[in-house]
Amino acid sequence: MNPGHPPLAHSILDVIGSTPLVELGRSVSGRGLEGRLLVKLEYLSPGGSKKDRIALEIIREARASGNLRPGQTVVELTSATPAQAWRSYALHWGIPLLRSSRAVTPSSEFAR
Prior knowledge:
Largest sheet: 2 strands, antiparallel
Number of strands: 4
Mean pLDDT: 79
CATH class: Alpha Beta
Radius of gyration: 19 Å
CATH topology: Rossmann fold
Order of helices and strands: EHEHEHEH
Low-confidence stretches: 103-112
Shape: elongated
Number of helices: 4
Helix content: 25-40%
Strand order of the largest sheet: 1-2
Distance between the termini: 59 Å
Structural class: alpha+beta
CATH architecture: 3-Layer(aba) Sandwich
């Protein structure tokens, strides 16, 4: 374990994907088992979920490929933790974000 402080992040985006990995050795040895039990503490991610990584990668890839251009609006149709991640990244990069809490359903024409 590093006795010093963690590196200073210059943006909230710098800490996404850097959630701690913890070994629960006593949970294994205390039961007379062998092996390792590792847990990734994704709840410590800024948005509280692994979905932070997904939203960040989608936006990064869209920006890098030119599919998301400056000033272009992103329409976000998820809810809860994914919505928090999208909102954070949109604010960070100045991307207009349109959130919809309505479920998108196929029209009767496509449902046949």
